[in-house]
């Protein structure tokens, strides 16, 4: 996230660019296709600033260092996950950072369901034992 705080006018200007999905007071969400183009252009020898300027960005608004920071993050993502890394959300609660585009096989689903059933049965047994212990404790009083 940039240290910049964008004004309403700057946000509206940024959102006019087709390479931006969303802009807010503190952040800019870039189009995955733009990220891929930027990485490929960078690998061909273009500078981060040059890439952003050619794609219609005003460096006075986003900041002169922003292209460099973005390309560093995007290169890391591209090296780890390839082009698909820009299409899959890997942030947030419960995210493992792995691509989940593969459908689960029926065997995998069955194995997970059986494991869940075992867990729930063990939980029920535990609760029954706990209830019995509580009943005994009440009787002794």
From TrEMBL:
Region of interest (Disordered), ranges: 87-107
- Which regions are flagged for Polar residues bias? 97-107
Q: Which Pfam family, giving just one, matches this sequence?
A: HTH_Tnp_2
Which top-level group of life is the source organism from?
Bacteria
Coiled-coil features, chain-numbered ranges = none
Annotated protein name in UniProt: Transposase-like protein
């Amino acid at each position: 996230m940039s240290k910049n705080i964008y004004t309403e006018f700057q946000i509206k200007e940024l959102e006019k660019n087709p390479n931006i999905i969303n802009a807010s007071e503190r952040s800019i969400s870039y189009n995955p296709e733009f990220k891929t183009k930027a990485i490929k252009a960078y690998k061909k020898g273009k500078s981060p600033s040059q890439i952003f300027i050619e794609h219609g960005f005003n460096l006075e608004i986003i900041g002169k260092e922003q292209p460099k920071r973005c390309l560093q993050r995007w290169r890391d993502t591209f090296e780890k996950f390839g082009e698909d890394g820009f299409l899959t959300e890997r942030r947030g609660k419960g995210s493992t950072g792995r691509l989940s585009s593969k459908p689960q096989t029926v065997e995998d689903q069955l194995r997970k369901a059986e494991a869940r059933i075992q867990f729930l049965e063990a939980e029920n047994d535990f609760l029954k034992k706990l209830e019995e212990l509580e009943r005994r404790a009440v009787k002794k009083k």
